[in-house]
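Form 7-S
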Amino acid sequence: MLIIKDQEITLTAVEFQILRFLVMHKNKVVSRSQLLDILYDYQIDVYDRVIDTHIKNIRQKVRALYDFDFIKTVYGLGYILVGKKND
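Output:
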């Protein structure tokens, strides 16, 4: 669960793990492969674009309460979690 502006946002377990990893690496680019490594066993063949779907879902859930895209896409590299609007 995520709390923004005293409002609860329900995340799936995978969404929570992604967000947690991004928070731990705030202001650093995180690749899809890094996220896949923490989410799925190496024996499982998972298409890396599944990460895009999870990021999209996290953004939609947060945007409903907080009009700021705090997860930015870095073209060709991955994602970065940024701070407040004026950071």
